[in-house]
Specification:
19 helices, about 10% strand, elongated, about 625 residues, alpha+beta, 8-stranded antiparallel sheet, 3-stranded antiparallel sheet
């Protein structure tokens, strides 16, 4: 047992290390490659040609990255269909990181100096290499996050993997801010004897981060173990670009939450992208740029763990608003009070106090049930595709905007803070801070006025879905009409028929069990038909087509998954008696909720005869019902 536990934490550590390098590499690709392009790539060319090439390269990057969104579903399908003895994710994680790292280094050499020899040939090769770089990075990105369900069948444990990956990713992303100037300056000095940020320093910086990404990918490959016995139904669904937008069009809460997140994300990425220029050209203190990354990491250490605690007392809508108000306040400091070091530090702290990403993920997750109730369609794959798509879009637009800001404000080539005119500073402020400020305000307004999917409303939606299921408004084909099915008690306890004194208004066909244990087992051989994000409801379908829903507790939707541990994956096949779910009776008791387990048939019209063994104590695995399906 100790060995298994130790291996579990080795796997978690290895997975977290993967995103340390992965996020750092993406930071170089998203933020610092543009800085290199504007500051060092064309330093040997005339200012006129350099300006034209900077405009060309930044425009190409935006076009390429937007186009990449169209091919991401194809890349996901390729990963899904990969079969090797190492699994389907690991080969692409390693190959994607190695190839993209090599191409990254080539680009930071100016394609081996071609930029100074033939800029037309450079532009053509740049497009080819950057497309390949983005494709192979996307292979590693899709595979890294896609492997989470293959690492564990427990939702709680999957949450740990995701949290650790996000946490280490924040360190990798923000850590660049701490190390970039010292590394680039030091190696530029070794090469040229000048304390500036030159092309050679940028090349070494890119090489270090590329090597880190490859090392971290190797750690993931060596330290994790894909489990082949779990197949998520969402992974089988081939989501296309069209599917994503159809899903958005049909679900207004996904649409508004996504739009609010887009505004926030674009403001966030643009501001992070211009911080280097801000410290170097506006403040004239590039050596202090590391402060921004250090503060981001420290704030992240406190805000990420405190979110679930705050959310117990404060609805997520107001946490989103609080984070946006902090972000908005930071822009006023950057614009009007940046010369005061203490206020500047306060601005950096406020800028990084944001719950937007966490709130958006939870809102989009809840929007799955909202869409299911509204349209009758439940497409998790669409929801899972939305946020990464937004991140790629904002990354692409930010790349173009940051490049344009550098050009418009004269922050290219060998320019320094001394070269900045009042006009240059005004142009920088307008584009670098006023536009993100407007975006941050729009994100706040949209979320406040248009996103109605609160925790309370989601709880109501789940209960409505449950009532629809109880009324038999779903359908799975009966594969063996006339078949007699034995239903086993999913949990030990006292059995009563529905409706009863606890659920007098619940007009469903089924039974309740007052449990004497906290484990739910499969009542027959079948498949997980559907689940809710709140974990307290589980839809099962027998191999013969009989549908049942197991609902743990009364009003337990209010717990939002707290106190529940799942042992299944969506779409997973199971055998009778297999452990599917655990719940903590103390959590339910402290919340003042009943732990009564409700089991009901969602298609009673397909049942010809039903015999229930009720008003008695049963152990799990004993026969609780005999069902005969209707014949044609």
């Amino acid at each position: 047992m100790q060995k298994t536990h130790a291996h579990s934490w080795i796997s978690k550590f290895a997975f977290a290390m993967g995103n340390l390098g992965h996020a750092a590499f993406y930071g170089v690709l998203s933020n610092y490659f543009i800085v290199f392009v504007t500051a060092g790539l064309f330093s040997k060319l005339s200012s006129k040609i350099a300006g034209q090439l900077i405009g060309l390269v930044t425009s190409l990057i935006v076009i390429i990255r937007v186009f990449e969104i169209f091919i991401d579903p194809l890349l996901g399908n390729i990963v899904d269909n990969t079969k090797t003895r190492w699994g389907k994710f690991k080969p692409w994680i390693l190959l994607g990181n190695v190839v993209s790292a090599i191409i990254m280094i080539i680009l930071f050499t100016g394609i081996f100096g071609l930029v100074n020899v033939n800029w037309i040939a450079f532009a053509i090769l740049f497009v080819i290499l950057f497309v390949l770089l983005d494709i192979f990075y996307s292979f590693s990105d899709v595979s890294y996050w896609g492997m989470v369900p293959a690492l564990s069948e427990d939702s709680k444990e999957r949450g740990i993997y995701t949290s650790l990956g996000s946490f280490s990713g924040a360190i990798g992303w923000n850590g660049l801010t701490i190390i970039v100037v010292p590394i680039v300056t030091y190696f530029t000095f070794i090469k040229t004897g000048k304390h500036t940020q030159g092309a050679f320093g940028w090349l070494v910086f890119a090489g270090i981060i590329s090597l880190l990404a490859v090392i971290c990918a190797v750690i993931v490959v060596k330290g994790t173990n894909e489990k082949d016995n779990l197949i998520r139904s969402a992974a089988k669904q081939k989501t296309t670009f069209k599917d994503v937008f159809l899903g958005l069009a049909k679900n207004d809460q996904i649409l508004w939450a996504s739009l609010a997140y887009f505004m926030y994300s674009l403001a966030n990425v643009v501001t992070n992208g211009v911080f280097y220029y801000f410290f170097k050209f506006i403040l004239g203190k590039p050596q202090y740029f590391s402060i921004a990354g250090l503060i981001a990491i420290l704030v992240g250490f406190f805000t990420a763990p405190i979110y679930p605690i705050l959310n117990k007392f404060i609805p997520r809508k107001w946490l989103f608003c609080f984070g946006q108000c902090c972000m908005i306040s930071s822009y006023f400091i950057f614009i009007f009070a940046r010369e005061n070091i203490f206020l500047l530090i306060l601005g950096l702290i406020l800028f990084n106090i944001t719950f937007a990403q966490l709130v958006t993920v939870l809102t989009l997750t809840d929007a799955i049930e909202y869409g299911q109730l509204k349209t009758g369609e439940r497409n998790e794959a669409v929801v899972l595709a939305v946020r990464p798509m937004i991140d790629k879009l904002t990354g692409a637009f930010a790349n173009g905007l940051v490049g344009y800001i550098a050009l418009a404000a004269g922050m290219t080539g060998s320019a320094t803070a001394a070269n900045m005119t009042a006009k240059d500073i005004k142009v920088f402020e307008s584009l670098a801070f006023y536009i993100p400020l407007v975006l941050a305000v729009l994100a706040l307004v949209i979320f406040l006025t248009k996103v109605k999917l609160s925790e309370k409303k989601h709880a109501t939606i789940v209960e409505e879905l449950k009532d629809k299921l109880a009324a038999g408004k779903t359908a799975v084909a009966i594969t063996d009409p006339g078949k007699k099915i034995t239903l086993l008690a999913p949990v030990s306890g006292f059995v009563k028929a529905l409706p009863n004194e606890q659920l007098p208004d619940f007009k469903a066909t089924g039974f309740t069990i007052k449990p004497t244990e906290n484990k739910i087992y499969a009542p027959f051989d079948g498949q997980v038909h559907f689940t809710f994000s709140t974990k307290h409801v589980l839809g099962l379908v027998a191999n013969d087509g009989l549908e049942v829903v197991i609902h743990v507790g009364i009003d337990t939707v209010k717990l939002r998954g707290n106190g529940f541990i799942t042992h299944y994956a969506d779409g997973q096949h199971f055998k009778a008696g297999q452990l599917l779910l655990e719940f903590d009776p103390e959590v339910l008791k402290q919340a003042g909720l009943s732990d009564t387990v409700i089991v009901f048939f969602t298609q009673p019209r397909n049942i010809a005869n039903l015999k229930l063994n009720v008003d008695q104590q049963l152990k799990h695995g004993e026969v609780v019902a005999n069902v005969t399906l209707k014949s044609n």
